[in-house]
Amino acid sequence: MFQPGRVIERLASRLHAPPEIVERREERAFIPCHPAPPVKSPNLVELVIGARRNLIEGWTERYYRAGIGSFRILRRQIVFVNSPEHIRYVVVTRHGNFERKSPQMRRALEALLGDGLFISDGDTWSRRRPLVADIVHKRRLPEFGRTMEDAALAVAAEWAALPQEAEIELTEEMGRLTAAIISRAVFGKNIARAAAQQVIEGFSAYQRQADSFNLGYFLGADEGWPTLGGPQRRRAIAKVHGVVEAVINAHLAGEGDAGSMVDLLIRRNRRSEGQPLDTTALRNEAATIFMAGHETTATTLTWAWYLLANAPWVAKAVHDEIDAACGPRSPTLADLPQLRWCRAVIQETLRLYPPVPLLPRQALEADRIGDLAVEKSALVMIAPWLLHRSADLWEKPNHFLPERFLSGARIDPYAYIPFAVGPRICPGMNFGLDEATLCLAILAQRFEVQPRAGYRVEPVCRLTLRPKGGLPATIVRRPAPNAG
């Protein structure tokens, strides 16, 4: 069957070969996969091909150090901000001038999320942020803890029923797990599995069609060009919107699950001052919460399994900790304070593989960052992928070292930003951290995950940071711990 996308990909690779993927194992040390920085800066053609293929390739060595800089792509200034003090200036001191997400991100997501919190700004963002922040606040975590536990235990039961040496695809498995959690948390426990799967498939198909470059912006259109949508993209949007709108309408008719995030959102919306959100706005916020809660945690858990499989000394510390804290019973939300290694593995995973590795902003007006003049409508690039691997901010930045989060040393909040930082920090940060830590603990208590021997793992970003082609792996049962 003719696949034009594959043909274009092969032609692009001939014009600009993808970078080497670096991965190295040493005695009690592991440097996980990452693209090697190119020796020289890419030209315009290489830059465009590279950006469409993988947004984390093409950064030369000089960008992996703290600092600021500027370059141009066609008619647009690109400002690179990679030092904690200047990041603070952009996202806090001058938040009002730099709050807008880039046109590329807005255009790539607007058809799916509308004016949802992730890509909105100005009055829309200011009005909705308190609504969403309240329903995902950390004080509500106990309400959703049992949902996390039940979903992880369901996956554990499925894994236990697999025949020996059966292979799974980890990104899909973790996607099903986090979708089960977030769909029940957002939409209510009564959502059908088929409906949740429809939302997952819709999001995945939409991401495959996303244009993360937007040539129009670099040619001078400050808002970028609208993204053209083919039939596959329209079908993906319809899948997601159909499910979410049905749930919203059920809640508005009094038929939804009390206590779900949609229920809380609707009730909070009715009590809020000013103009309440209509059905479309409620749908956009519910879709945004689902996307953020499903995709980001699924990719984090996938990368965590990859890292543990290649650092058996860390896996042993995790297993010993779980066995000591929980014995034969399953970990619960209440155990998380004792599961420090599990939490550190998730934190280090987020450092090495931040789910959203680029956080581009757009300058509303001309400004100055340090000694650098910033033009109106310039693209201001804050990149957790680069910041988290800067040699002058982190010791052994490319190594997997979860113990760096156990030492008690203070970590600069503007040097570690997997959930962004400042007023636009992810409101679901605590939910996501606890969800990932608890799911890892429940599954790691029972299983080890072994990626397929010889499989080449490669991080690729279009909207989020995933292993290219997924991550095939075998599940190995651990012996049950003795009762204490």
Automatic annotation (TrEMBL):
One Pfam family of this chain: p450
Which UniProt key words apply to this protein? Heme, Iron, Metal-binding, Monooxygenase, Oxidoreductase
Q: Which domain of life is it from?
A: Bacteria
Q: What SUPFAM superfamilies does the record point to?
A: Cytochrome P450 (SSF48264)
The family this protein is said to belong to: Belongs to the cytochrome P450 family.
In Swiss-Prot or TrEMBL terms, this protein is called Cytochrome P450
Q: Which organism is it from?
A: Ancylobacter crimeensis
